[in-house]
Amino acid sequence: LENLVANYKQACKLIGTEEMRPFISHLLGENDDEEDENSVDSSVHLLVQDMPLRPSHTRALAWAIMGNGQGMNQKSYKRYDSIAFVRTEAGNAGATSFAELMRLGKPLGVEPKSISFIHCNLTAQGCSMLGKALENGANDSLVSLTLDYNQFMNEGLSGLIYGLRSN
Asked: Can you give the pTM of this predicted structure?
């Protein structure tokens, strides 16, 4: 996780945005309740909820997971099985960043099985980019894609369906 956080900090510098200290604590699992036997291992299942990541921090996270940006340690974070964003304002640019992660992740060993953008302000553009990441077998690890409570309408759904159908 320390490498992931170092990559996130470098990605923030590259993007030109300040690091989010509460998000770094969340990534490190500092708020996890180890006493609760029903708790989920946040180093494997990332749930980011009600944090204003917006596109810039969502993009920084995607770059950090891949670990191959300029000045990064060239170590990808391979442990995430699921990544869920809930009310994070990720938007289309955030979804596009994770579409790139889905498309380029396999050679880096980054192959999440589940990605969710729930109530994250996605429109047709973001949904279509996620569909493109799935086109023609570009990603064979994703099993679940959840896009509840977004406004992508028929246009976005068409792009997503094409990607799913050709995968």
From this structure: 0.93
